[in-house]
Amino acid sequence: MDDKKENGKLKIRNIKNGISIDHIAAGRAPEVLKILGIDGGFRDSVTIAMNVKSSKMREKDIVKVENRDLDVSEINKISVIAPQATINWIQDYQVVRKEKVKLPDELVGIVECPNPSCITNKEREPVKSIFLVKNTSPVVLVCKYCEREIDSLY
Ligand SMILES: Nc1ncnc2c1ncn2[C@@H]1O[C@H](COP(=O)(O)OP(=O)(O)OP(=O)(O)O)[C@@H](O)[C@H]1O
Ligand SMILES: [Mg+2]
Ligand SMILES: [Zn+2]
Known about the structure:
It contains two helices and eleven strands, in the order βββαββαββββββ. By secondary structure, the protein is mainly beta. It has two domains: 5-100, Aspartate carbamoyltransferase regulatory subunit, N-terminal domain (Alpha-Beta Plaits); 106-150, SH3 type barrels, CATH 2.30.30.20. The protein has a five-stranded antiparallel β-sheet with strand order 4-5-3-6-7, covered by helices on one side. The chain has a four-stranded antiparallel β-sheet with strand order 8-9-10-11, with helices on one face. Strands 1-2 form a two-stranded antiparallel sheet. The mean pLDDT is 91. The structure holds adenosine-5'-triphosphate, magnesium ion and zinc ion. Zinc ion binds at residues 113, 115, 118, 120, 143, 145-146, 148.
């Protein structure tokens, strides 16, 4: 850690390369970390801010991860719990790409169906889950196979 103390304040260094996931719904940062598979074994720097004041939202969370990229599946998972999130790719300390997550119309293999007898949860030859987005704010998903609804994600 080479963070400097200035005026008694801990200054968090900008990252050279990585991602900053901004405008996450307040309180959802831990779930974003889970989606990214970041746990105690992760070695690069991770900065998390929760419930910080924002001009665009009342309060938000932010997650910054050094030396990490995101794939489409991870971005789709983030869109389910943080539909307003912005993903910023940072290279050489600069934002080189900015993308607002977008909840797709259909989520394929992203969310597990909570219905234990759903065909997508069969132990033998399970079918890949498909959820249709019934509503975006709040997010309501419906399983294409058993019609079970999920509405507590966001
Ligand atoms: N080098 C860096 N290291 C860590 N985080 C960074 C770095 N550069 C930018 N960020 C973060 O990336 C996000 C977007 O930065 P940007 O400069 O585009 O801010 P902004 O103009 O407020 O963007 P927005 O309109 O998306 O809020 C912010 O969360 C910012 O803190
Ligand atoms: Mg901003
Ligand atoms: Zn189902």
